[in-house]
Amino acid sequence: MYTVIGLGNPGEQYRRTRHNIGSVVVERLAKCVGGKWKGGENCYLFTRVLIEGTPVLLVKPTTFMNSSGIAVAELIRRFEVPITELVVVSDDVNLPLGKIRLRAKGSDGGHKGLASLIYHLGSEHFPRLRLGIGSPPEAVDLVDYVLSEFEGEELPKVEEMVSRAIVVIRVLVCAGIEKAMTFLSLM
Length: 187
Description:
- This protein is 37% helix and 21% strand.
- The protein is of the alpha/beta class.
- The two termini are 26 Å apart.
């Protein structure tokens, strides 16, 4: 069963930040398919849903981004999820705003949430859907940038990216990562 994990930070003050775009995608997907969030061992929220008849577990860690691996490792133990059936959705400052990249495995690319997952899972062999949030302007610190909210003129691109990410996830869980990668390349 695929398990889709949306990375972000807990708390209302982070809800609309760039760093929380992974969490936003998973929340919107849950809403689209009627998911109801439940607590899980105090470090994540989850909901079991059906996507086109396929059972899927949607997850939002309630740890801070840099400790996401703790929540995901607990989840894997509890639900006996194979690492290759994880799909991690996260922001990426190395991609232009609105660009989406899907990979079957890989390094953390400097993303501390992904680094935490790789460390706690002991593997880089899990799919990840990276959502471009753009790079910070020269005078802006990276941490301040990822913890800032999207600007008004960016919102249409963000909304379109979230919608496309949901479609890619639907294809992935129903048809597999290869088909999803092909589908994304045609979008």
